[in-house]
Here is the input.
Amino acid sequence: MSVKGKAYIAGAFEHLTRKAPDKSVAQIHAESAKGALEDAGLTKDDVDGYFCAGDAPGMGPLSMLDYMNLKVRHLDSTDSGGSSYLVHVAHAAEAIAMGKCNVALITLGGRPLSEGVQTGTAPRIENPAKPDVEWEYPLGWTTVNMYAMCAMRHRHEFGTTSEQLAWIKVAASHHAQHNPNAVLRNVVTVQDVVNSPMVSDPLHRLDCCVITDGGGALVVVKPEIARSLRRPRVKLIGAGEAMKGQFGGEVDLTYSAAAWSGPVAFAEAGVKPGDIQYASIYDSFTITVLMQLEDLGFCKKGEGGRFVSDGNLISGVGKLPFNTDGGGLCNNHPANRGGMTKVIEAVRQLRGEAHPAVQVKNCNLVLAQGTGGLLGSRHGSATLILERE
Amino acid sequence: METKQRNIPFSPNNPESLPFWNAAAEGQFIVRKCNACNKIHWYPRAVCPFCFCDKVEWVAATGRGKIYSFSVMRRAPEPYTIAYVTLEEGVTMLTNLVDCDFDTLKIGQAVKLTFKPSEGGFPVPMFTPETGD
Here is the structure.
C-alpha cells in the first residue's frame, strides 16, 4: 500500500503577516485555515481531519479544534519541529487512503518576533524532562551554533567554503526581490554574505534565516473531492519521514535525515532527483540547504558547495530552482518552523501561481523538503514529491 | 591562558544521572558502559542505546580526546566555543572548549578534560587543548 495518488493538496495559504503584535497565535492559525479552505473552494464544515504541531497553543489539537469549532473524525499532532507540516501532509494522505477522513486541514502559526524570542542566539529549554537537556543546555547550545558545527565539519571533510554557502543566500535573494511580502527584498552578493557579521563560525548573519511572525495552512483531500474543485490538481506521489540523532555518541554531522526520508519518497514516486523541476528546501541556514541537497541526491555527498555555486539554484538561471518565494532566508519563517511555507511555494509552482519572474515553465514535478529540530543534535526530516495532474 | 568564564546555568535534578554529577563534584569523569555489549555510550543512560540491556555500569574515562567540530559563538555577551569532542573511549560528546585562543582551534586537535563550575555548584565537563596556552 502506498500514498501515491491517494490524496491531493487542494488548498494552500500563506498568512501575509510578518509581525503580528495585534494578533493571537490561535487567531493566526484560524485565519490561515480560513485562507486555505477558501483557496480550495471548501468550507469549515467540509473538514473532517485536523493536523497541527507544537506551535498550536493548547494540548495537541484540542484547543485549536475548539477555537475553530471543528468536528473531525481524525486528528494528529505529530511534532517533528519545522518538518511537521510535511509529515502531516503524508499522514493526511495515509488517513485519507484508509478512509479515516476526506478533507484534512493542517495549520501553523506563531509570533516569535512579537514575543521577542531569541530564536538563534540563546539556549531555550522547552521541557526540562528532555533527557538531553542536562548534557546540552549548560554547554550553551543555540540554534545557530548547532548548525554552525555542521558547517565547520562539512568544511573540514569536503572543503566547503563560506563563498559557496553564500550562493544559497544569493539565490534566495534573487527570488525574494519579486515577492512584495518578503522581509528581505534586496538582492545580495556573495561578498555581502561573507562580509556580514559573524554570528557563530562559520555562519554569518546572512547565512541565517529571518525571524518573523506568521502562519500558513494546507487542505489535503481525497481524489474525488480534488476532481470536483476548480483548482489545478496537485497530487502527492511520494512521501518519506525520518529522524536522526547522536547514535549514542557515534556522532556524524556530515549528513541529515534527508538521506533517509528522500530515498523513500523517490522510490514511492518512482522518479529520480534529476526529474525534479523545482525544489522547496528548508533553509533555516545556508548549510541546511546544502546538506539536504546532497542527502536527497541532487549531487554527491561533499559536492554541495560546487552544486549551489554560480546561481545554480536561481530560477531561470540554474538547473534546480529552489525556494522561489525567497524562503526562510529572505521571505519569512513563521513560528520558527519553515516546513509549511516550503509546501505552499511548491504548490504555487505546480499550479503556475508563483511570481511570473520565478515561475518554472511547464512545472509538473516538484519536491518539498523539511527538517525540524537541530541538524547538529537531533532532527526530523520529511520529503514530499508532488505532481501536477 | 584562561578564557573568561560565562555563567553556566545548571543544577542537576535527574536521578538517572546524579552519580555522574556527584562524581564530577569529586573531580572524577565517568561514563556509562554496557555489561552485555561492552560498549560505552554518551550521554549516559540507564538503558544501553545499542542493545537495550539495563545493566550499565559507570566506568572512569581518561578525559582525553580530539575535537570533532566546534564553533565560536560570537553573538554572546562573552564569546564561547561549543564543540563536539571524540573521547579516547570512542564516543563524541557536546562540550565547550575553554582556556585557549579560540582563533587557533582546529578539528582533530588533541584536548583534555577540565571541569568548570556551574551556577548550581556542580562542575560541568569541558575541554582545553593538550598543548594549549
Observations:
- Chain A has a mean pLDDT of 97.
- The radius of gyration of chain A is 19 Å.
- Residues 50 and 268 of chain A are 25 Å apart (CA to CA).
